[in-house]
Write a structure and sequence with these properties.
By secondary structure, this protein is of the alpha+beta class. The protein has helices at residues 2-11, 16-31, 56-62, 72-82, 87-98, 100-115, 123-138; strands spanning 40-45, 50-55, 143-148, 159-164. The chain folds into two domains: 2-65 and 125-164, no CATH class; 68-115, no CATH class. Helix content is 50%, strand content 14%. The longest helix has 16 residues, at 16-31. The radius of gyration is 20 Å and the shape is elongated.
């Protein structure tokens, strides 16, 4: 129920033209014969009242996912800590495995990325979007992901909504 309310709220500011475009995109996905990287993803910019679409293959160019915390050096270090290794020994092990410079660069990139507003759009969230999209399409569900983009200079995250044929797209003006 909360997801429907959130989706309805996110769609509330769409113009009639954008609402018709949303219906057309759903029709296009329904007609698609199978999963494809060419299927559309919608990007909603609330501040500019803009709703755009991009093929999934281009999404990483329009909205690059941040994967700095997935650097091999950091993943290896975390794995060693999970195995119970002392942090200093784990760091030295990483230095031997990857080199001091690469470990320092990965750590520096990681901390610098914390100063950059990525709005929660990580490589993991990107992969989840792709796998969920594919799984739903392969099950025969007509669905289009819409990313409601966070406002610039805010701490909010980009919000992922799944638009289906049951999503209340058109506003009803009759009471």
């Amino acid at each position: 129920m909360a997801e429907v309310d959130t989706t309805t709220q996110a769609l509330a500011g769409l113009t009639e033209r954008q609402q018709r475009g949303l219906i057309e995109v759903l029709d296009e996905v329904r007609r698609a014969e199978s999963w494809s990287w060419q299927l559309p993803v919608l990007l909603r910019e609330r501040c500019w009242l803009r709703l755009s679409r991009t093929p999934l293959t281009e999404l990483h160019r329009w909205l690059p996912p941040d994967g700095r915390d997935e650097a091999p050096e950091l993943v290896h270090y975390r794995r060693l800590l999970q195995q119970g290794m002392d942090p200093l020994l784990a760091q030295q092990s990483c230095w031997r495995e990857f080199g001091i410079e690469d470990c320092q660069r990965a750590l520096q990139d990681y901390w610098n990325s914390r100063d950059t507003a990525i709005h929660g759009w990580t490589a993991e969230r990107y992969r989840q979007l792709v796998s969920s999209y594919r799984e739903r399409i392969e099950r025969g569900i007509t669905v289009v992901p819409m990313l409601v983009l966070a406002r610039k200079n805010s701490v909010e995250c980009h919000q992922l909504l799944w638009i289906t044929e049951k999503t209340p797209v058109m506003r009803h003006t009759c009471a």
